[in-house]
Specification:
Elements (H helix, E strand, L loop, with lengths): L6 H20 L3 H68 L25 H4 L37 E4 L10 E5 L2 E2 L2 E4 L2 E4 L6 E2 L8 E5 L4 E4 L1 H9 L5 E4 L2
Antiparallel strand pairs: 1-2, 1-9, 2-7, 3-6, 4-5, 5-9, 7-8
Length: 248
């Protein structure tokens, strides 16, 4: 006589069968699991490669552009320096036009000049009479001069605020003579800390603490030139006598 399973037994068999099937579905083989992870690994590796390419490209661009940026900044500073010297030269010439073609450092203090300070090379005192001829005291500091900074006003002006020398013996009507220029001169005979004597054949050169191995000079006629060592010496040779430079 056949025995048929009752309802409770059939229910237990059905539940056991479902659990077995569910477990088998979750137990994937290592090959299947590796295959499912592969697209994510490829995407992550591709993204890392793209990041490295971008970083490398930026590095190359920086290497190419940085020298141009530095050169452009130096050129901008040089142009500012030329503008400063042009204004300083113009201010000195305007003052000389009012004082019988003599610059402030060639006129006695009795006549509102600064001649008595010339022998000491006290540049901050020598140019005080030009205060009303210049647009700002800040033009007396070159932006390329890392050792000098602009003064707030002429009352606080000192050597630390001056980037330019003054040629004490320049003549208003002799355009060959140097009137002023960048302070970083090397050579010549130093009479004291701030006074240099330059002979026509002196081997005077430019230092490296402003415009590297070059400098700007303003001639007595108001023109400004950027010159290197050989051009500076050639300009000095055109002056028939030794001249004195007041250097800050």
């Amino acid at each position: 006589m056949a025995v048929w399973p009752n309802a409770a037994t059939m229910r237990r068999v059905e539940i056991a069968s479902q659990g077995t099937n569910h477990g088998n579905a979750n137990r994937l083989s290592p090959v299947s699991r590796s295959a499912s992870d592969c697209p994510f690994a490829l995407r992550r590796g591709g993204a890392l490669t793209e990041i490295l390419i971008v970083i490398g490209t930026l590095g190359v661009l920086a290497a190419l552009l940085l020298p141009r940026i530095v050169t452009g900044r130096a050129e901008a500073h040089r142009l500012d320096c030329v503008s400063n010297l042009r204004e300083l030269g113009l201010g000195a010439r305007m003052w000389s036009n009012d004082h019988d073609k003599s610059f402030p450092w060639q006129v006695s203090t009795n006549d509102r000049g600064t001649l008595e300070f010339a022998s000491a090379g006290a540049l901050d005192r020598l140019i005080q009479p030009l205060g009303k001829k210049l647009s700002s005291v800040q033009i007396l500091a070159c932006p390329s001069d890392k050792l000098r900074g602009p003064a707030q006003n002429f009352g606080t002006l000192g050597s630390s605020n001056l980037s330019y020398f003054i040629a004490l013996d320049a003549l208003d009507d002799d355009p060959r003579m140097i009137l002023c220029g960048d302070r970083n001169l090397v050579g010549g005979q130093m009479i004291n800390e701030h006074l240099m004597v330059a002979a026509p054949n002196a081997a005077i050169t430019w230092g490296t603490d402003m415009h590297v191995r070059a400098g700007n000079i303003c001639l007595a006629d108001g023109t400004v030139q950027q010159v290197k060592d050989t051009e500076l010496q050639k300009q000095l040779s055109r002056q028939t006598n030794s001249v004195r430079f007041a250097i800050p």
